[in-house]
Write a structure and sequence with these properties.
This protein is α+β, with helices and mostly antiparallel strands. The protein is 29% helix and 23% strand. α6 links the parallel β11 and β12.
Length: 341
C-alpha cells in the first residue's frame, strides 16, 4: 500500500489536536483550513505561472517601495478572499496592504483571531521558476470580541503568537506550521488536493553546514559581522571545514532548508537599510516562532525577535536566525546579539 494511505491530512491533524484541548472551539483548525485552501489556489497559479499570464510586474510600487509582481497581488487577493469568507479571522495585515484589513461583519467580529501575512515571499524568484513562499502569523485578539478588530490586535510581540507557519512552493509544495506544542509539515498531494502530514514534530538540528547571507552586502556590514562571515568560510567553522553558502533570495526556502538540515540565516543592517529588509510582524516573527519551537534561536542582533514590541505593522528588523549551536557561535562574534534565552 502506498505510504500516504497511512498518513493523515492537515484537516484531520488539526481536528485531532482539538482532542488535546477540551475547551478548544475549533476556530484555529478552521483558520488553518482556510490558509491551506488559499495555499492550494496559489499553488495552482504558481505551477502554470507563464501560462496564466501571472509573471512579471503588476505596475505598482508597494508600501515598502518595492515593485509589486502580479503574483503578489493574486496571492494577496486569494488569501484575503478565503479568510474574509470564512468565520475564523477578524482581519488581516498583509505586506501588500498599507492599512490593516478588518473583516467587519457580524460573524468575523466574533472571531478571536487575527492574521498577519506575506502572501508571496521571494517575489524576485517568480519569473525564474525558483522557490517562493507564503508566511503567516496568528494572534489572539486583545480587543473586545463582537466588535471590529483594532490595530492593537496586530501590534503584539511575537511571543504572543498562537500559531505561525509558511508554505513553500518548491519542487513540492509544503505547508509547515507551529503552535507551542510543536512544528509539523504537510506536503500537498496535487492529485487529491490535500496536504498530508509528511514532516511530523520537526526539530531543527543544533548544527548544520549552511550559512545564508547575501554576500553582496559583505562590505556594508559591521566589522564584527564580517569576522563572523570570515569564520563561516574558514576551515575551522566546523569539523567538516567551511560552511556552504546557500542564499535563494527567498527566506522561506533558506529557513526551510535550515530547519531540516541545520543552518543559519541572517539579513543584517546594511548601508541604506538601517533595519535590514525583512518585516518584523509577518516575516521575522513567524519564522522566529517556528524556529524557536523547533529548538533554534532568532535575534535582531540586540534582543530576541519574539520580545520586540512592534510599533508599526510594516516595520523592518535585522534578523539572525538558525540552529542553536550556530547561533551561539554567532554570539562569540556579536556579543550583543543575545541569542541565549
Ligand atoms: P519579498 O517578501 O519582497 O520577496 O522580500 C523578502 C526577501 C527574502 O525572502 C529574501 O531573503 C530577501 O528578500 C532577499 O533580498 P536581497 O536581494 O536584498 O538579498
Ligand atoms: Mg513579499
Amino acid at each position: 500500500m502506498p505510504r500516504y494511505h497511512n498518513l493523515i491530512t492537515l484537516d484531520e491533524f488539526t481536528i485531532q489536536q482539538l482532542r488535546l484541548f477540551p475547551h478548544a472551539t475549533g476556530e484555529l483548525s478552521g483558520l488553518l483550513r482556510g490558509i491551506g485552501l488559499a495555499a492550494k489556489r496559489v499553488n495552482l497559479e504558481v505551477n502554470k505561472a507563464a501560462l496564466a499570464d501571472i509573471l512579471g510586474a503588476e505596475g505598482s510600487i508597494n508600501i515598502q517601495g518595492e515593485v509589486v509582481q502580479k503574483l503578489d497581488v493574486y496571492a494577496n487577493n486569494v488569501f484575503i478572499n478565503v479568510l474574509r469568507s470564512g468565520i475564523n479571522c477578524a482581519g488581516i495585515v498583509s505586506e501588500e496592504n498599507e492599512e490593516m484589513v478588518v473583516f467587519d461583519d457580524a460573524k468575523s467580529n466574533q472571531s478571536k483571531y487575527v492574521l498577519l501575512m506575506d502572501p508571496i515571499d521571494g517575489s524576485g524568484n517568480i519569473d525564474i521558476n525558483i522557490s517562493i513562499g507564503s508566511i503567516f502569523s496568528v494572534y489572539r485578539r486583545v480587543s473586545d470580541l463582537g466588535k471590529p478588530a483594532k490595530l492593537e490586535d496586530f501590534l503584539q510581540p511575537g511571543i504572543k503568537q498562537v500559531a505561525a507557519g509558511y508554505v513553500i512552493y518548491g519542487s513540492s509544495t509544503i505547508l509547515v506550521y507551529a503552535t507551542r506544542r510543536g512544528v509539523n509539515g504537510f506536503t500537498l498531494d496535487t492529485a487529491i488536493g490535500e496536504f498530508y502530514l509528511s514532516h511530523p514534530n520537526l526539530k531543527m538540528p543544533p548544527h548544520g553546514l549552511f550559512y545564508s547571507f547575501d554576500n553582496r552586502y559583505y562590505n556594508q556590514v559591521d566589522q564584527k559581522l564580517k569576522n563572523y562571515v570570515d569564520f563561516c568560510i574558514s576551515t575551522t567553522a566546523n569539523k567538516n571545514g567551511p560552511y556552504s553558502n546557500r542564499y535563494y533570495g527567498c527566506m522561506v526556502a533558506d529557513i526551510h532548508r535550515n530547519l531540516l538540515k541545520g543552518g543559519i540565516f541572517f539579513y543584517p543592517q546594511v548601508t541604506g537599510k538601517p533595519n535590514g529588509k525583512l518585516r518584523l510582524c509577518y516575516e521575522c516573527n513567524p519564522m522566529a516562532f517556528i524556529t524557536e519551537v523547533a529548538g533554534g534561536n532568532a535575534t535582531d542582533g540586540k534582543q530576541r525577535i519574539l520580545d520586540i514590541q512592534p510599533e508599526h505593522i510594516h516595520q523592518r528588523s535585522p534578523l539572525f536566525i538558525g540552529s542553536k549551536e550556530m547561533m551561539e557561535d554567532l554570539q562569540r562574534f556579536l556579543p550583543s546579539a543575545k541569542v541565549k534565552f
